[in-house]
Amino acid sequence: MYCLRLFLFFAVSSLVSALPPKFAGSDVQKQYLVLDLPGLHTNVQEEDIPLMFSGQLQLYPENNTNYFFWSYKDQHPLPENTNRTMFWLNGGPGCSSLDGALLEAGPFRVNEDRKIVYNKGSWHKAANMVFVDQPGGTGFSYTDVYDSELYQVTQDFLVFMSKYYEIFPEERDNEIYFAGESYAGQYIPYIADGILRHNRNLTEGEKPYNLKGLLIGNGWISPNEQSLSYLPYAVQAGIVSTENERWGQILSDHEQCQKIVNRIDANFDGELHDYEVSSSTCERVLQTLLTITRDKSLPKDEQCFNMYDYTKKDSFPSCGMNWPHELVFVMPFLREDEVKGDLNIKNNQVWRECSGAVGSHLHARNSIPSVHLLPSILETVPIVLFNGNLDIICNYMGTESFIKKMTWGGSKGFSSQDTTDWIYDSKTAGYIKSERNLTFVNVFGASHMVPYDVPEISRALIDLITGNYDVQETQTKSDKTKKSYVTYPIGAKAEADAKAKAEADAKAKADAAKQGGQASPTEEEKVDGDKSNSDASTSESAIPEDYDKSATVSKITRVIQLLVIIVLIWGMYVLYTSCKSRPSSIIKTGPSTGKKKNVQWADQLRRFQEDDEEAQRQNQGFFSKTFGKFTTGDNRGNYTPAPDKYYEDIELGDGITEHDEQSGASLGSASVDNFVIDSEEEDELEEQEQVHT
Question: Where is the composition biased (Acidic residues) (predicted)?
């Protein structure tokens, strides 16, 4: 039992030494810490595993409203990507933001084995990402009272933010960004407007929120204007043509929608109008489009265009509702008890991608479309509106159309309809229009869910709103200047900046040399003199350009941990073999065989051999002594063979009797459980043996 306890002690010590440092956050934060997920430690490299928190925050105990969130923080962030928190919201209304977390901008995707795998385009590398299921009743969030208006959604989210920052006060002063898609085009402007109103009406002790930007993808911002774009978009994309036998039907629906939009344009005053908040007439255009383009000659699961990506097909009338196909992995994954436990889900609710109850309650009949809120927000907060060019339902033509009609910053629409190429990693990723705090991006080769199709490119949208990009100008063949916005893979811009600076310095020196003069020193040379040249030379010769210090430190740490484990396992083995060889007590309680046993305790022998061994130890070094401890073990309490000159015969068991010292009478054979050999009693024992024989 003693050996087993020691073995378990060392085993636990080995495992503990191999674990990462203990999370040092508050006790409250630890309640939301996510330590494991199926596939996390087998499919994801350690340096890519973010610090994760997840759980349900109570907003209103009186109506049982709780919001679910799942946050990701990069444990090795680049300096330019720190102190930044981004809240992600999916649309619907009533669709879970875990679509965004596990299908789009989060660090993980779910494979067919219901295990997570890493997403190289995760947005958490550029900002702390917080995915929130809202409003109440969406995803893992729950409530007894559903929101019916967008101002209620706003108020609820502001309460959520206050609760969130109570748990994570270290993020309270971070830059705040919002991102999302589809019906989040209503959520995000409303919440941003609520934050700005909060900042203007602070009470004593309150702090403003550091709102820095909004990113809205394929947003449902101006509903009727968006619906009016369905027919021209479908014609341009080749989805429908005037040759279709039911062309007259869709054209009629389009004209009815046009009449409503004309009324809106004539009274675009930000006031509430019934014809503007009701979009059923205009939404009929899309349903007609999907119906008249149905091809019944194709297999059932290919008869309808996918309304979220027209290059794909689906069954009718789903027409995209079964997409993306990874949903068949995500849904059962989020319904597993193990996963819900990992995510700190307290109630036993079943996760659904979209809640019909939320959508049916949120009519927003008394909420003006969010397009009316954008001009005032743009006065202080930059906005990026991005659209995947393959989407039908929230297509880019609808977004460009309402921008053309909107007045902000003292002007209507963009001053020029010219577009600028967006370059990512040396390839054209789309085109951009940008003026007066508003940027529009048309993302090539992307659907309604841009991060799903082009994850790494989509992450660079954060660079566009934070200003982490370059503007390059080139001369065309017609001698015109062409401008491009250039973004880079994560961390590559710093390298590009260093390279550009070196090229500029070299060019300046070359130009000076051509003019016959001596090149003027750069700013760094003026300060550091020859030292800058020496440092640059050392950097070029000794440190590779792709050197990753954090990765090297991580590898060294793992090697050290491995060595510690090996040493501990070696120590356990030595300890185990030592305990295994320990004999049982020489004191017997049962009958003896009568045979003699020549034994010697190791500590007795050590006294006789001490002088000889001491001389040997004097000649040993530190490492030799240490190695000897492991290889020879500890002989205390073990039997050690003794030379013949040290042998002493001791017979136990039969023939041993006790005498009463006062009477001299023999007490007969007795138990010898407490029998002790003492050096002072050896002569007396020998005499007793002679008497009995």
Answer: 678-693
